[in-house]
Predict the structure.
Amino acid sequence: MKKMRHVVTLLFLLVSTPIVFAQANADCTIKYNLFKGDYNAKNYDNAYENWMWCMDNCPTLSVNIYKYGVKIAEHKFENAAPADKAAAADVVRRVFKQRLEHFPKDKADVLDKMATFEAEAGSSEDVVYGLLEQTFKLDPTELSPKNIYSYFDIILNKYKDSDTQKVFDTYDEVGEAIELKREYYAKKIGAINAKDSTKISSKDVKNRKIYQQLTTNLSIVESGLDQKLASISTCERLIPFNRKNFDKFKNDGIWLKRAVSRMYNKECTDDPLYDQLVEAYVHADPSPQASVFYAGILMKNGETNKAMEYFKKAVDQETDTYKKAGHLYKVAQILSKKGRKSEARSYCYQALEQQPTMGKAYLLIGSMYASSANSCGTDIVSKRMVYVAALNKARKAKAIDPSISSLANRFINSYSGNIPTTKDLFVAGVKSGTSHKIGCWINETVRVP
């Protein structure tokens, strides 16, 4: 009889266990759908209880428990009484911790969000820095624009007097992450712009606006980082620093690329060390970017034909349209500095063919126009009409690339102040609204303002 009871008990457990699990799964699904409904309706307070039940009982049901849960928990934290703030903050931290435990796929993104929350919650700099550093080591492109700035700011303050190399390395790595993010958004915008205008949906318009804003944020952060680094990245500091480290890194393509880029961007290219760095770079890493820099020093040394061969080689080597546009723009910059403005303009337009949203290419053309005002005009009106052409390019830059609006506005304001006045036109007998042909290398027709 005792043996029979054991058999009956075992049979009962075998039959009832699936029912228990099935009931638990059903409860999880019901609670999940209830809190999700409240979440979608933005009733975060109503969603809290069912969401927390899912956190406790169904932690692996769906990653949305954590994606939605962060908003629910943060809402609770934001509206908590001062005495309840600490407990509410711990709930937010629990959401992140459980997500990393059960859904660790997007770890860098989660750590970035954790850092943002800890900063907003008033946690110590060490706590925030620890999370930012983890994110940076896993995938620096997952840092938000704001956290990119925060991370570099902490690094700069910690190491500017004790480890300049770390500061420079971090700046370069952060800059490369910004460029990768900018490339990603630019390609997204380009894909939308490439569609037939009748096929661009409201969702496309919304997404394009988001991508443009994110790109603008990156430009703002990049400008802020440059200002932060300005005090320790002068030619007076860069040249001896790079000279001291050259023997150690003369075969390191990454170090050479960064050293060359820093000296180029800071206009330290007249020092012989720059040529030495570029030559080492092109041997250590015969990449398209290295070829562009090498062509630049060939141009500087009067080896024009050989320089043009390297420019062409760099462009032909590159298959990615975004990167090809970058090389073409760099070539345009170098030619512009050498006074070869017509060729520089041609390279700008080639860059725009590869990346139609590259507003800085139009700004470069506009700046070359403006610098040619005296040589491309014979009287006050014809000289000032060159600024009209420059103004048109600056406005075009702003229209195609909202991320550079602030910079474009400075050019627009500058050129606007130099166009022909009503008095100038009256004295010269030129009628507003008529066409005006600008000669010399510009060779462009514009409308009289």
